[in-house]
Amino acid sequence: MSGAVPLVCICGPSAAGKTTFAAHLAEQLRARGHQPLLISCDDYYRSGWSPNSRYGFDTVDAIDADQLKLQLSAVRYRQLDSLRSYDMRSRKVSSRLLQQPYDLVLVEGSYGPQHLLESVPISLVVYIETPLLQRLVQRLWRDVRDRQRPALYVIRQMLWEMLPGERRFIHPLKRRADVVVRGYTWDLEPVLSRIG
Hints:
Low-confidence stretches: none
CATH topology: Rossmann fold
Structural class: alpha/beta
Strand order of the largest sheet: 2-5-1-6-7
CATH architecture: 3-Layer(aba) Sandwich
CATH superfamily: P-loop containing nucleotide triphosphate hydrolases
Number of domains: 1
Number of helices: 6
Radius of gyration: 16 Å
Strand content: 15-25%
Helix content: 25-40%
Largest sheet: 5 strands, parallel
């Protein structure tokens, strides 16, 4: 296959359901004969990075933009053997082999799309919009259970870092979106119809 692989960017606030939406979308795309590759912007958090005094880790500066842009540019032309990986618990960087065939890239994240929209050709931008209370509960549950962070730490982080970071860096992405998907409804059709 020649030419660049199309890139679909799924963005939106923390705990809006981007990862789950991307997984459902990938499943439907496979049923239609596509071979999607899923990439998370979370894998491009900087290792050893000192949290921002205002936003903590909820800032575009926490993402290694150079690595993200470099790897996505290479992936679009199938010129990469491994992808960066980031462990949210240990905050350590590693890599994973890229062995699967793919004809479409789904990249999802809260921080990272801001860098991509200015430098990597994106075929479709999808913004996931979910009510705040629902997201706060989901993030608390996820960070305590999966990332083993203390509940009080997560609540403080959400109120003092996450919300200001979203207003500054994520909400403007909605204006750039081709499709806005609301809530945990997983309405895939508007996105599937654009991909074909």
